[in-house]
Structures are given as C-alpha cells and as structure tokens.
Design goal:
By secondary structure, the protein is α+β, with helices and mostly antiparallel strands. Helix content is about 30%, strand content about 25%. It contains six helices and 14 strands. The chain has helices at about 5-25, 100-110, 115-135, 165-185, 200-205, 220-235; strands spanning about 40, 50-55, 80-100, 195, 210-215, 220, 240-245, 255-260, 270, 275-280, 285, 290-300, 300-305, 310-315. Strand 5 and strand 6 form a beta hairpin. The longest helix is centred in the middle third of the chain and has 20 residues, at about 115-135. The chain is globular. The model has no long low-confidence stretch (mean pLDDT about 85).
Length: about 325
C-alpha cells in the first residue's frame, strides 16, 4: 500500500468499537461479584445529585395495640422513618489510540486492538465494586458495605487471630458473631449472610474439623461446619461470602479486618447506580495524532434502609 488512508483507519476503529460495545452486554466478568453482596438499584438518572430513601429506626411495642369495645382511639407505633439524602457521583475516563499505531495495524492487516477499551471497562467495574465495599476516598459521604456510619460494631472479641484458631474455635467465634447480629436486630429477623475477607474464607475452607468425618473417611472443613451450624440456627440457608481485593483487610478499627453479618434483602440494604457504564458519544478525534473513546458512569454508595439488620465485627486475621 503506497498511501495509508486516515479515513479508512478511523472507520475501522469505529467498527471495532461498535462490535466491542455489542459484545460487552453479553460478556461475563467473573471478578465483578458485588451484586452477590448487595442489591443494585437505579435512581437519579443523569442529572440527580442525590437519591432519597426512608431509613427505619425503631420497631414499635409488641405488647401494644389491644383494643376493647369502648376504645375510641388507637395507640401509635413508635417507629421513626427518617428521610435521608444519599449523594450521587459522576465518573468518566477515556482511552486513546495513536494514529501511527493504527496505521501500522492497517498495513499489517491486523484487526484494531480493543484491549485498551477492555481495560477501561474493567477499571469502571472495579471502581464500582470498590465503592460498593468501602466507599470512595475522594468523597467520604459515599459509603460502602463495610464502612457505613449507620451500622454498629459488635462487641464480640476474638481471643486470638483466625490463623491460630482450631476448627472448633472458629466455629464458636463465627456463631457468636452471628448471634450478636441477630440480637442487635431486636431478635426480629435472623441474618442470612456473613461476609468476610476472601483470604479468611480460604482459611475456613482449608482448616479441617477433626471431630467430623465424611463418608469417604476424610475430615470436613471448618467452613462446612460453620455454614451448617449457622443455617441450623437461622432455620434457613446462611451464606458465608468472601470479600475480594483485600477490601475487608484494614477496614475495621485499629487496622483490623472487618466482617459483616446482615440480611441481604433490597428493603434492608441497597446500592444506587443510576447510570451503568456506557460510551459517552461517538469516537472523538482529539488531534491529528490521536483518537479517544470515553466511558461515563454515575453511582451512589451503599445505603442501609434498616441499619439494625446489620452488624460489624473487627478481628485480626493473622498473628502480628
């Protein structure tokens, strides 16, 4: 080829990006597991600065409400619903292609490389996931699942680091955590989720409970024993989930790891994402040398509608 065609290069890049956009909707991202921990909703659209929700405080008197044949008025439930405004933030980042690299790809007959856009989309998803667990460092009003100022920290204290506990000690510790979360709710709703650091979850998987032998003659894991005990206590399935990327490590007081016991239901805890990741307009030519594609996203933090249905506990994962 004697002369490389800039218009053809731009057209090829636009075609590649369109095909990538279409495939993105169906592609699975196994590292994005935030929806397993919290319901994601969409409020506020493109222009709202806040979403508003009612935060429930108090449950009412369970011994009140009786009436007789001469009762002329009813008692009121001592339940306070406070309307709370939760901030919404706007996020946008771009990636660029140098025209010389595109020329070289054209001359070599190679497809346009979309790895930069794949990296940008993954960055957007991991940003959203980090916010979902620990909020955003540049706007501390935006809280995550592990650092809400509405959720209290349990007084359950580990007598030693997790890596020094036997399977039986691990069982007692996590059962105590779970029971403390239940009592905090006023013993109204038994939690269904215990979320801990992913490495600590691996520890539970690899620690054997020597007092329980499986049908094949081996020993069951501490994780299996703990999940079975918690599910038995709750009279429903309780899941122990692993929080990724060390988000739980250092999230507690004094640099400790943090676990959360809660009921994973939409009317108890949600995260607001008004606008999912999307391309902002068409491919832009920034200069004679570069093309640019931009992603746009809007998100809020994790909001606890019923904070008393969740409880934190801080502990040491390993011996210092």
């Amino acid at each position: 080829m004697d002369r490389l065609d800039a218009i053809a290069v731009e057209t090829a890049l636009e075609t590649a990006l369109t095909e990538f956009d279409q495939s993105f909707a169906t592609k699975e991202y196994p590292t994005f597991i935030l929806p397993e921990f919290v319901t994601i909703e969409s409020q506020g659209g493109y222009g709202g600065k806040y979403s508003e929700f009612g935060e429930l405080d108090g449950r009412g008197d369970l011994d009140a409400g009786l009436i007789g044949d001469s009762t002329s008025s009813t008692e009121t439930a001592d339940v306070n619903v406070e309307m709370v405004e939760s901030p919404i933030k706007t996020w946008s980042m771009s990636t660029q292609w140098n025209i010389q690299a595109l020329y070289e790809a054209q001359e070599a007959g190679l497809p346009i490389d979309t790895i930069k856009l794949e990296n940008l989309r993954n960055l957007a998803m991991q940003t959203l996931q980090k916010v979902g667990f620990v909020g955003h460092v540049r706007d501390t009003r935006v809280k995550g699942l592990l650092n809400s100022d509405k959720v209290e920290t349990s007084n359950v204290i580990a007598t030693k680091a997790l890596d020094k506990m036997t399977a039986e000690e691990l069982l007692r510790f996590f059962v105590n955590i779970f029971k403390a979360g239940y009592k905090k709710s006023g013993s109204i709703l038994v939690p269904d989720t215990l979320a801990i650091d992913a490495s600590d979850l691996m520890l539970l998987r690899t620690t054997t409970a020597n007092n329980i032998i499986t049908t094949d003659g081996g020993y069951t894991s501490a994780l299996t024993q703990i999940e079975a005990a918690l599910s038995d206590i709750a009279s429903r399935k309780v899941s122990i989930k692993g929080i990724p990327s060390d988000f739980a490590v250092g999230a507690g007081t004094d640099g400790k790891s943090r676990a959360i016991v809660y009921t994973n239901e939409a009317d108890i805890v949600r995260m607001n994402v008004p606008v999912q990741r999307e391309a902002l307009g068409e491919l832009t030519r920034k200069s004679a040398l570069t093309f640019e594609s931009t992603l746009y996203m809007r998100f809020g933090g994790v909001d606890f509608r019923q904070p008393d249905m969740a409880s934190y506990v801080d502990y040491n994962s390993t011996t210092p």
